[in-house]
């Protein structure tokens, strides 16, 4: 073969190969594109069955997402399209959001994971880790193992947070305070870091010299991690990224360093002293490092001395710290903000802590298992602030079919909008947007019934309350769910609870002065907005605000009254005080003695001006001083007072240590109770201090006093009181006032009635637990004041107080003020408890009183209306003068019970009925009196506008009124709400002359029959209904005389209503046309609508302009028509006849009220006989189709022809029936039958606002 042919053949072969390759490539690409197109069409096909907003472009909903956040878009979509909605993020990217908890649980258990952003952030920072592997099986297995380790071994560690955590935490806080105020965010980051470090590494973490550097480095990396992870391509070209990588390497080295230190300590201790704490630390390290056998198996020591830890365990530790720090800091910050803005919950948690400490054998260890409200607060804070807006999953391999029938195609991005789920009213109640930790508590045996409010959770010790497991609620997702759930949820929750138990035991969390008083979160379009980050302060509780002798001045001069003693020193001091306490039962009436001491110190205080208003109190003291019992008591204790006074003076002159002097006084007073110790010590000081100032006040006018004053150098001292000594006396005055305040509280605790608050009541026992330390610091202040006076009289004005002594007096004053504030809070809590007891007792008395038989109504009325012999609790509406309650004796009394929002329409109609009854003085109906009882909750702030509103209402009423709402006791308010079912809507309770309740609410009778319903009893109500029939007069009687005239004339009358002006025009035109054609006398009356007053007014204007028919120009009459109609149904409900099938009036009343809620309606009558009561969708077509049935008129008559044709249309249309009962209704029926089909109706919860001003809330 020639070379030319060979070359040709080779060329042809090459071309054939190239063509084949091109064809194969083309076919492959085509098949790939076809496969993509098929997948796209398949995705689009399956997505069509999933509800969601329509796409406005080929690129999906991206234009919509450019103007709103994804969460807001999903909130609107879920509200409109249901629990499963779709969004197109691009031509081929489908996102499906699931909101229903049951479907979420199913989806999370079926759908495979997709690598979350935090996993990428960790990988960029520290490299690969099995915690965030892309393989579903690998990550699931590894995280289950780690979860077992964390929630097993470290869970025990979480219950025993080292005692140094709070101390180190406060060290850091005071360092920050030196630079300015602290915010929740700043301190929560440090708390989260300290908590995780202490839990994982133990006490060694606080001894580590590089802990502060480690924390700052960790915060920096955590702050920048998600920023660098947000790049779709790792930004190797950016210099900042390499600086970030360098910081990450330093963090890994520091982590290895702390591991090495822990290993070194564990080995050293295991070879020397095997105590419990270090064995626990050893096991803790083993669990944290992910080891399976021993700590030594995880790390090895190189010859160079540097630790070479295995990469995976080290990364596990950093992974737990990295992600635990971010989420824990957010949760801790939210808890701090919630506690700072909800002081009532904080105080109840503190009561739990006190009770737990009281029942625990170890002082420094808190058991949080019984602190139900603390745990509930953590769960509620986590619910309101989830770690992120979404849980994201991706169904990668197969379609996912949910139990509701929705099929989600493979490749769809599945998300759970956590914020929407955890703010959903269906899952959490109508207060889902509010902070309410009581939702996680329930009564034992009723776990499905949430506690819901603070009033029921009174006694933290009661075992009748249980904590609901939040994970039982599928809508609780702050820690995630499924295989990507937080692996350390249990131990972190336990650690946070233990940390806050220790923190709140020693500190009170408050808002910084000047910061927002009550920052609250907001909900915008169902999207939870983060709580503002307030600036907070930690105020030490006085039971640990101890100063221990032996500390130098530099250590004591610490900002914000920092605690100057460790817990062990504080406990030692308390043991010393308790060791001297041995009461032998002797009683001292401390209150008159304290009054005498208070009078001495008030008059002796430097430059105190005695007000003339104190004369009465001084007279009382003189009266007490003349009583034989008081004089005998003074005689018995005078020796003790003299001894104490001498002891104080001698110790002060000898320069004894203040703490030692205080303990010696406690020893002298060992046989007395705590309050007696304090008042006796204060009396001794008053004797000493009073003598000093008595001479100072009279030495210029009394020669004997002048001679004694010279010996004490008083003239010289008094000459300098306006100069160098003024600040010293001012400091003494402040301290003495603080001493008096604390003593007054302790004496008041002694006088609390034991029949209303017992020793074991948590409020009282909590207060009693603080009394010893309060007494100690007050007596310690007595010693300090006496020392200053003694030194001053000994050295004269030349005495210069040292810095430490001046600081001591100021610190003691500040300390006692804090003690006083805390005692006042505890006292307020105790008084609330007493008030609750008294209120409950009064309530039971009311219940028993109304169950008893009386000869007249005086006992009942005096129990309802606060009345004393010298008080006139009523105001006569006719004369506007105050009168005694005797004016109501043996009369029928109608109690008009309402709040201050009673409408003028109600008052106007009621006044008209009342005045009509007064015109016929000889009639029996006039033998009743109306009394207005205003119900205003005592916690509502009573200001000038409220007072003016009350006075305006009171002046407009012609009947008797209570002089002021404060005369109505809380027990009465509770009785009115619980027994008489008052819920802000006025009721009229009827009492007969013997004080018996003969009608729980006669307002319905009053609206329907006026004074004819006298004596307004339930029996009279039933009798009146028996006399009634379904006729037009029942609806319009007393409203429009013209309609009554039409009834007498036998005319056809249309009553009609609605808020659609076009429908009204069509109806009136059609009705007039039929009347003219049929030649029947027809009148029409527009009665408006129960709501939407402005719309009704516009329709009336149209009727007037176009002369379309009659209407009631006075809107009060429209209101009265609908109120009477509502009263008819409420009256039937009150009598238990709401579903009486044998009563023909009930379904007709129900129909009218139901039609009023939806569109127009009309009622046709001939004279008083009602022919048709129909919805607008049936009555108007009947009129418009007159040509169809007009042939029947000559045969059947107009009445029957109209009724028959209307029935035919009604059988096809079947308009829905609906009733809406206000939450303020007195009695809401448990069920209701439909007036059309007589089946039981479905029940819904509805929120409604019709924007009507000055209109009472309608029931329907």
UniProtKB/TrEMBL annotation:
Residues at which heme binds: 486
Q: Which Gene3D superfamilies match?
A: Cytochrome P450, Glutaredoxin
- Keywords in UniProt for this one? Heme, Iron, Membrane, Metal-binding, Transmembrane, Transmembrane helix
Domain Sieve element occlusion C-terminal residues, every copy: 1020-1251
Name what cofactor the protein needs.
heme
**Could you confirm whether the keyword Manganese appears in this record?**
no
Q: Where are the transmembrane segments?
A: 20-41
Q: Which GO terms describe its biological process?
A: phloem development
**Any idea which GO molecular function terms this record carries?**
heme binding; iron ion binding; monooxygenase activity; oxidoreductase activity, acting on paired donors, with incorporation or reduction of molecular oxygen
The record, for PANTHER family, names: PROTEIN SIEVE ELEMENT OCCLUSION B, PROTEIN SIEVE ELEMENT OCCLUSION B-LIKE
Q: What is this protein called?
A: Uncharacterized protein
Species in which this protein is naturally found: Citrus x changshan-huyou
- Lineage of this protein's species? Eukaryota, Viridiplantae, Streptophyta, Embryophyta, Tracheophyta
